[in-house]
Amino acid sequence: RQFEEQQDLSISxxxxxxxxxxxxxGAKFFAARRLALALAYLGLSGLDSVSVHGLFADRVAxxxxxxxxxxxxxxxxxxxxxxxxxxxxxxxxxxRVAERSRRRSLAVLITDGYDxxxxxxxxxxxxxxxxxxxxxxxxxxGDLKPDASGEVVLVDVETREERGFLLTPGExxxxxxxxxxxxxxxxxxxxxxxxxxARVSVRxxxxxxxxxxxxxxxxxx
Length: 221
Fold this sequence. Notes:
Layout: E1 2-3, E2 10-16, H1 27-45, E3 49-55, E4 60-66, H2 72-80, H3 90-100, E5 106-111, H4 119-128, E6 132-139, E7 150-155, E8 162-167, H5 169-193, E9 196-201, H6 206-215, E10 219-220
Parallel strand pairs: 2-3, 2-5, 5-6, 6-9
Antiparallel strand pairs: 1-10, 3-4, 7-8
Helix pairs in contact: 1-2, 3-4
């Protein structure tokens, strides 16, 4: 199993490390690291050049390009050291990655999809810098729980701003519909940009996630 075939492929794995991806039980960030590790292993096994970047608002943590399956442990140690925190500034972080990169590559952005400025702006940074972007959005069905109706207090995990209100079951269903509509619109915008896009469940196993990516055209046998 390989990334779509290219000669002497260079792969940049871009991991959203903002506070929102670590929200709740941390399932999204755990899944993001597992996925990044699996993709790194596939690339290293194919003798591709693999770099990994942790995207924070004020900095980018970078593991320089590596080759060979023997470098897997270095990727694991790097990912284990990352802890999500701070606001989402993906476009700014990706601009830093683009400035440092001597060679354009396949750029795999793994994110929870939350960006107040719009995830499209971040992807456009990669497109403008002549990367070949792939957007992988992590989703968790538990984000809007069935029992979340009634008196609800929403807390922005990044700004700590609180907002309380009454939420009826009908309003909860409407929120779910709006969230799905936003995802569909995002998929449409990614297609318009020529960007491969996939949504994966954080509760899925790594083999299951890889099958989803394969069906989305990100991976092939």
